[in-house]
Design brief:
The protein is of the alpha/beta class. It contains 13 helices and 19 strands. Helix 2 crosses helix 9. It is globular, with a radius of gyration of 22 Å. Bound molecules: calcium ion (CA) (2 copies).
């Protein structure tokens, strides 16, 4: 309890005078725009601005209406740490070997001389504040996983520089299973995202001399599991109205068995709890939306909105039963497609959209470009989206790459997804008539040129997974080449698979101990 209190009190202590933070580069940054980066965890494309018809996301809609929505944004990697390390450093997973959750970039020599995105802004004269999950962290398991924060990147961070998330609010007597859900009697303010965005809102509204530009990052944890949300977020989605995702019973028949061996939603579906899980995920989306609204409201009230670049992005998508899967950790569209919204005053036009493929790797070069900073020389795998923001109709020839474990890659262009695994297995989907990726056309000889064209974008360098030198090996990998059962989550939080506790939803029933 003492540790928890200390962490919760941290923002009060740290809210001391802003004047204490000055930087030699202050003068150089005097006229630059502020940046508000909102990173959401495990949010897939089920949001109003991307056309979803059941998720309730009025604040995301409001944000989207202010700037540009990318409708074909793809994550570089379908697991938290891999994408966050890649996007926040501008280094591809295939270059760094950071493919999974357990790999701490801070122990890696290759990152020693590379500034992370927030560090680069700080080094360039920005005041930098952050809260919540920006770099990898999670809550489940006793005391959670404090995460791989870049402690030198921030003037202040909540709950603490070395601890990114407060403890999970959960129903009484429930262990913090990573995949579980249930209503809790609490207000939004008491949730992780309520506390995180409460800090961010206070920072946004702080007044100082007003000259030093600010980089403020809000790491929103929902809809990451466990889906313990205030009751009101469940009742927004009556169970009998919940729509299940598109599903084809024999969908897996045209995919190599090694690449669909983890059918982790299947036990939930067979237990009759599929709709409950979708309801809980939807409720979590609306919690995240509430958090976004909190931050936007503070920005409006701060008087600085007209000089603030806002970027909202999710780390990766989420499967809710498609191909019998749940969560991420595959190279299919629901796990890879992400919300990505940019509002850049003087650059974006309200209500604009772009359907070209863009990537998490574009985050770093885009923000640096929009803020007028010099891009670090090491950035790879992405490009500034500024030309698209200025001219949404321009021709854009780039594709979006995703990588899951060593040597498994997927490339998306406007029409196709082409995936090739390290063992040579392939998938090819035509989104012009198959948006659910049901029909694998990789064996169609008439499409060889499509595969060749897209396959040319797969990385030529594919390094081995990085091993933390001081840490014991965890997980053994799955040997299938599909990357990565190696996670950092302890198993089952002591309760084990199948545990249920009073007040919890049926989520744990039949669930495997997760390694997300
Ligand atoms: Ca995530
Ligand atoms: Ca299929």
């Amino acid at each position: 309890m003492k540790a928890v209190l200390t962490r919760l009190l941290a923002p009060c202590v740290a809210a001391a005078a802003l004047a204490a933070w000055t930087h030699p580069a202050h003068a150089a940054g005097a006229s630059r725009p502020d940046v508000l980066l909102i990173m959401v965890d495990d949010l897939n494309a089920m949001i109003e601005p991307l056309g979803d018809r059941q998720a309730i996301t009025p604040n995301l809609t409001r944000l989207a209406n202010q700037g540009m929505v990318f409708t074909n944004a793809q994550s570089i990697a379908p697991q938290c740490n891999a994408i966050r390390t890649a996007a926040l450093f501008g280094v591809l997973p295939s270059t760094s070997g950071v493919y999974n959750n357990g790999q701490d970039w801070r122990a890696m020599p290759m990152f020693a001389d590379k500034p992370s995105l927030p560090r680069h802004f700080r080094d360039s004269g920005y005041l930098t504040f952050g809260a919540g999950k920006i770099f990898h962290a999670h809550t489940f398991a006793a005391n959670g996983h404090p995460g791989f924060n870049d402690v030198k990147a921030w003037n202040d961070f909540w709950p603490a520089l070395d601890w990114q998330l407060p403890d999970e609010l959960k129903p009484a007597a429930v262990d913090q299973l990573p995949f579980n859900w249930g209503p809790v009697v609490a207000t939004f303010d008491a949730t992780i995202d309520g506390m995180t965005t409460g800090y961010v809102a206070r920072r946004i509204k702080e007044t100082d001399a007003g000259r030093q530009p600010r980089f403020i990052a809000a790491g929103i944890y929902r809809p990451h599991a466990p889906w313990y949300n205030p009751t009101e977020y469940f009742t927004k989605y009556p169970l009998d109205t919940v729509q299940l995702p598109p599903y084809k019973a024999d969908d897996l028949d045209d995919i190599a068995p090694a690449h669909h061996d983890r059918q982790r939603m299947k036990p939930i579906m067979e237990a009759g709890a599929w709709k409950d899980a979708v309801q809980a995920y939807l409720s979590s989306i609306t919690v995240a939306d509430e958090a976004v609204g909190r931050v936007l409201k503070a920005l409006d009230e701060s008087g600085r909105a007209r000089n603030t670049i806002i970027v909202l992005i999710s780390d990766h998508g989420y499967q809710l039963g498609e191909k019998n899967q749940r969560e991420k950790e595959t190279l299919w569209e629901p796990a890879l497609r992400v919300p990505f919204i940019i509002v850049a005053p003087g650059v974006t036009k309200p209500g604009s959209r772009s359907d070209v493929p863009v990537s998490s790797m574009d985050l770093y070069p885009t923000l640096v470009d929009l803020a007028g900073l010099k891009a670090p020389a090491h950035l790879e795998g992405g490009s500034s989206l500024r030309p698209l923001l200025e001219n949404p109709g321009m021709k854009w020839d780039r594709v979006a790459l995703s990588t899951w474990g060593k040597g498994n890659h997927s490339v998306r262009d406007v029409r196709w997804r082409y995936t090739r695994y390290a063992d040579g297995a392939e998938e090819l989907y035509d989104h012009s008539d198959d948006p659910n990726e049901w029909n694998n056309r990789a064996a169609d000889p008439s499409l060889a040129a499509v595969k060749e064209r897209l396959g040319a974008h797969f990385p030529k360098v594919n390094v081995d997974p990085w091993r933390n030198p001081a840490a014991p090996a965890r997980g053994a990998g799955n040997g299938s080449g599909a990357g990565a059962r190696e996670g950092d989550a302890p198993r089952g939080g002591g309760a084990g698979a199948g545990a249920r506790a009073r007040g919890a939803g049926p989520g744990a029933r039949g669930a495997t101990p997760a390694d997300e």
